[in-house]
Design goal:
The complex is a heterodimer of chains A (391) and B (269). By secondary structure, chain A is an alpha+beta fold. Chain A is 51% helix and 19% strand. Chain A has 2 domains: 180 residues, no CATH class; 185 residues, no CATH class. With 269 residues, chain B is an alpha/beta fold. At the A-B interface, helix 1, helix 7 and helix 11 of A face helix 2 and helix 3 of B.
Amino acid sequence: MPSPYTNRPMFRRLVRRLLFANRGRLFVILLALSAGAAVSAALLNLQTDAKRRLTSEFRSFGANILVLPKSSDLGQGGTLPQLPASIFAPSPDSTVSVHHASLLYAIASIAPKSSNDFSQLVVVGYSGVLPGRAPLDSLKADGGQAVHGGDVSQCIAGQQVAAKFQLRAGETVTIRDGDRSLRCSLAEIWKSGSTEDGQIFLSLADAQNLTNAPNQISLVQVNVAGTSLQIEQFASQLQQKLPDAEVRPLRQFSEAQAKIYSRISGLLTAATVLILTLTTLCVMAAMTNIAAERRNDVGMMKAIGGSARRVLNLFLTEAALVGLAGGLIGSAVGIALSIALGKAVFGVAAAPRLIVYPISVALTVIVAILGAYPLRRLASVRPATIFRGEA
Amino acid sequence: MTTQPLVTPSASLQPAPQAPPQVVLENLVKEYGSLRALGGVSFKIQPGEWIALMGPSGSGKTTLINILGGLDTATSGSVVVNGQDITRLSESELVRYRAEKIGFVFQQFHLVPYLTALENVMLAQYFHSVTDESQAIEALKRVGLGDRLEHLPGKLSGGEQQRVAIARALINQPKLILADEPTGNLDEANEDIVIKIFRDLHNAGHTILMVTHDVDIARNAGRRVELTHGHLTLDTTCNFLEQPKLCPHGKPFPSSGCCSTLDAKACNP
């Protein structure tokens, strides 16, 4: 039997000839494979990025862990001591990122600048940084002077509060709790779409001064950017650090995250499979024509001593090489496409994932080989039948 | 409709009776459904013989050559080539048989259109064993195509294409050359060139079985085998080159016989 190794130069020569036997047809197949690779690479990149992206999107919903006073302490003031930021630092081996904000809730009275008509509402002291709450991050405190008549504090009114009291940004409001009061300038009217629209926000220091609750907070909202499991693990570690507080993961958020990720992932997978299937069918259509053109060639090759396996090896190598070229070109285009798609879907460009590239190229090669099925059928060609002109 | 064979093979017709036959066909039958293409053909081929296989269209010539070349299978009977019954070979064994023992030359040339003349010859080497470009170049030079090595078949004349096909058939030094109307698509000039190549091959000791309708071409062969409706109707040896164009009595030389079968009755019906 001939050695496949000593014949490699001829094998390469034959494959090269096959590839360029019809450049127009090669271009069409390459185009189909590149287009398929581009779309599937874009979808795969989005899918890979979706987890991180969704986590990032959900972060805008706020906390997924609450640190509260123990239930037994709620009746006794309902506050806990302000916690140092180091408590919330993730362990060095952890990949999650953690944000937190300390809040102090109180019922106070508010009157617009030109009025002495006070109405009660929820006042929230806020300190920290949480995703999606950018307006609150920059609340400026007056260091306690406002309580005594200063006017340098800032506050943010929820949209409902602003509507009820006809407040506009830049106006001054007076907030009173018992005999203590504070004047603050409305930095912004905030529309959160939640109960926070009916609240007014101060810096935590101002709220503590107003309510005479120095160094006290009602709760800490913690946001852990990670999977459900990572959130649970972080909550558990936090609970160990804070035995006198209640650490409560907000499971419904984690589960919603998982469910939406699962749906989006499934949708992207289905779309990828659909695209690859359509690409396979396109390649198969082109290959059917090639197979018809090559029946005589295959018959002749078999007549002069070519085995079906060796003849098909030539054709399948040709198909795999076209697939490789289509994959390399299309996948690169696709990943670039996913950056634009990511921006359109999530508002932020998808990060290119290197692992997607080889996977997409490999899938395109597989598609090309599967698409070459009509060529594989040439294995059954009988030279005598071809030469008789019966097939 | 089938007819009884008019002539039965005769060992006395063989040119070298002492040598073991290279090919022995025994009661070869080939049926395509209800159609019987070969109805029990038997004859032998001695090494170095040039046989013209003749007969009207549909008589089974191509079927016989295909079976002998391992391209088709017999319904029954045996085909022994160099002591090996090829009707018992597996598909993979037939592939090796075709690569190593048979050289095919077809009427339609059957060159791969996207390979050069040189690569078409090397293709046969590739399927046989190891390619040797210098050997392939030499083969093409021998058929007068040393200056057409890199030409694609589409850029060659019919005669040149057939010479490439002959070079391809010879490159692996086959024991048996099977030619199915090799000059059927050629003009007279190219026909002469190709026939001269076959004559040289024959003189060099190659065994040739050539299907042809052309009596003039058949005259080059040392033996004529004729099929009619799948049956052997003539098997005769002679040196066609030395045959007169006319019979002794001035009648045209009969197309159906020569030498041993040529007698006064044939010339004077």
